[in-house]
Amino acid sequence: MRSPRILIALLFGATACLGSSEPPGRSSMERLDPPVLSPPPPAPPEQEAEIVPVESPDALRPGQGDRLASTAMRTFVHAEPRRRSMRLGYLRAGTVVERAAAPAGTDGCSKGWYAIHPRGYVCIGRTASLDVDLDVVHATPHGPLRGEAYPYRYVVSRNPPPHLYVRLPTPAEQRKVEGYGGRHEKSSWELRNEQLLGVPDPPTEYLASGRDLPKPYGAEEKLRYASHRGRARHNSAFGLISTFDWTGRRFGLTTELDLIPIDRTRAVIPSQVRGVEVKTEGTPAFVMHHGVRTLKPDAAGELRPEGWAEHRSGWVLTGRSAVSGVYVETDTGLWLPASGLRIAQLGRDLWAYASRGLKWIDVSIDRQILVAYEGTRPVFSALVSTGRGGLADPETTSATVQGTFFVQSKHVSATMDGDEASENARDLRDVPYVQYFHKGYALHGVYWHDDFGKVKSNGCVNMSPADAAWLFAWTEPVVPPAWHGTIHEKGGTLVYVHP
Q1: DSSP 84-149
Q2: Least confident of 18-32, 37-51, 55-69, 190-204
Q3: Candidate list 163, 460, 484, 488, residue with the active-site label
Q4: Residue 17 annotated as catalytic
């Protein structure tokens, strides 16, 4: 989906099809000093941290046991130890990574630039610290579950939206803030929520202590009451790092370190849609009807009913057909009726990428099918949902832009929102596996609909979370395990979008 807002153009080009952004800096009121009759004394010049001469080159390389912590929603990693150097990616608050023992310089960073694993430099200051014994680290039990279809557990707010607590609230605080009456017999939808979210985690030592949760630098904090930060926005959706049972109620910890009562939300039902890996020579195809029978040849070679092909399941066709093309063979040995399939049209080598064995992605708007290639060989295919505008002008409609592009940045998760002028505007946090390829257009996973195979988005290429996770791990540039995102200004894997 796409929004006209433009935030942090260097990182995203433009905001996503849903208007991509991370939360802005925390809000605060500036104190106005009273006027003075005489000029104040000049402020002392900023003192740069003393840089101790380093005799061993090992001190400038990570891997000696030293670490640093990210304290911001984005701690940028630079290619060189200087402020104006290229950004390679970023870390997320609470992440701890290996660093060099000594700084490599202080250009634009008075406390020093430190090399981190596996590459790049981080400036120590308001977004990172050499001290890893910090509240933001202890309050974050773990990062996203990289590689899994859903890197977080997802919930969507009910109406009214949940309050954002700063700590696990006492019963008295819950009564004062929400009018919550304490323990009660849980409704069927509350039980369903808890079943979808799985077994709760034990409260961490930090939460059990009753201390207030810290707010990472760059996370939104418009209000601050005694025990909460007001309500979430209308139509909010959250990725939860963990959930906890507390005072007979389930709470979830968001990625911005707020606690929300789960009974004020609706847990997301995971999509069962999966693409197909192409491990043999053949053409990907998808079952687009319910009640499609699979067939298998008997001893005499006659096709006999064998079972059922799941709706939207992926198959690889060998190219063989029977009964004048009515049935087609799959690489599993089963046969399917061709009339029940949507078959991918294999792409052409338009850029000499295939002849060089490089990776590239083909997205067909007409077929709503994505095919990933290594050279001339398809290796993966998935159903997608492109823009509702179909093949119309993306400048005036919600169509997906057509052309040849390159993956410019990748994010394990990112915050997106809908058109603010729309009554259906949503605040979609932690959208999984986002890959921008042109301005605000991206390939990304979706947890708020399950209509893959149909036009649906506001411009982006929507994928099931499982398929988005596969593609995210396969494309270039690679996101290092501890990082939350990478940036590649010159472009990574090629993306070709066409009718």
Answers
A1: TSPEEEEE-TT-EEEB-SS-SB-BT-TT-EEEBSSS-EEE-SSSEES----HHHHT------TTSS
A2: 18-32
A3: 460
A4: no
